[in-house]
Design brief:
Elements: H1 2-16, H2 24-31, H3 35-46, H4 50-68, H5 73-79, H6 85-96, H7 100-105, E1 116-120, E2 126-130, H8 133-141, E3 146-152, H9 155-162, H10 164-181, E4 187-190, E5 195-199, H11 205-216, E6 223-225, E7 228-230, E8 234-240, H12 248-265, E9 270-272
Parallel strand pairs: 8-9
Antiparallel strand pairs: 1-2, 3-5, 3-8, 4-5, 6-7
Helix pairs in contact: 1-2, 5-6, 8-12, 9-10, 10-11
Length: 273
């Protein structure tokens, strides 16, 4: 239980200080644990190191500033502790596969690595998930329209065979493909390790199918990462948000089930349920 509470404290401290200069040592102090023990817990339960989590979440907040404020790229770089624009641009491009300037002009998802929510499961086991508060509100507001759940095909295999850096590249590339395939009025979110949800806002299934077909059209594109290039595909399930929906969770789960049904018939495809 002590470790569980310490992990919650660590994540909470990070989230409350993403705009401040903090070190991994500051996080371990806030969690009242030794740095080595906390690092081990992060890696074991969250599959990411403390420093990497800070960097990914900080860049997500920076991406939000690019979209929501008129601050210059230089101002945002300094706000988040980067010594110069060049180092900020390198880190940003590695995570989002786009420079800050091109990201600001395009249709990118800021929460590529959403805040982690930690829940006690059984005893001292820890289960992780993502904060879906924003998407839950928007699902309820989109009653009667179609929603798409997009699932990266074989992300676990990519991570195991080529490393997590390649997996991160696949995640960022999926966001890019979705951004190229949807209209400016549409929204999309990452809701899990390999899952994205797209709110089409359309009551016509054909609109959702056109988006799915566009995403599939990028499957032959090479994805570049530090170890070379690779290809991957995305499978999708499409469902209609009920007019009388009361729980966003039920709708998201229905979309995920539709995606699973699609994948059982073969990757790189979609199904309207």
């Amino acid at each position: 239980m002590r470790d569980f509470i310490a992990l919650i404290c660590a994540v909470e401290f990070i989230e409350n200080n993403l705009r401040n200069r903090i070190s991994v040592g500051d996080v371990s102090t806030a969690a009242y644990l030794s740095l080595s023990h906390l690092q081990s817990m992060f890696s074991r339960t969250l599959n990411v190191g403390i420093g990497e989590y800070i960097t990914k979440r900080r860049l997500c907040v920076a991406a939000r500033d690019l979209k929501d404020t008129a601050k210059s790229v230089t101002e945002i770089a300094f706000d988040f502790g980067y010594a110069n624009v060049e180092s900020f641009t390198r880190a940003f491009k590695k995570q989002f596969l786009a420079t800050p300037s091109s990201y600001r002009r395009g249709h990118g998802v800021s929460e590529l690595y959403p805040r982690l929510i930690i829940n006690e499961k059984e005893g001292y086991d820890v289960a992780q998930g993502y904060d879906l508060t924003e998407i839950s509100r928007k699902v309820l507001d989109a009653r009667g329209s179609y929603i798409i759940c997009a699932d990266i095909d074989g992300l676990m295999r990519i991570n195991e065979q080529m490393g997590f850096a390649a997996g991160d590249a696949a995640i960022a590339e999926t966001a890019t493909r979705i951004g190229k395939s949807i209209q400016d009025t549409m929204a999309y979110f990452r809701i899990g390790a390999d899952h994205f949800v797209i709110l089409t806002g359309s009551k016509e299934p054909s609109a959702a199918e056109n988006i799915a077909q566009s995403i599939i059209s990028y499957s032959d594109d090479d994805v570049s990462w530090s170890g070379g290039t690779f290809k991957f595909s995305v499978s999708m399930g499409i469902v209609k948000i009920p007019q009388d929906v009361r729980s966003a969770k039920e709708t998201i789960e229905a979309a995920e089930s539709a995606t699973l049904a699609t994948k059982k018939e073969g990757w790189n495809s979609y199904k309207v349920v």
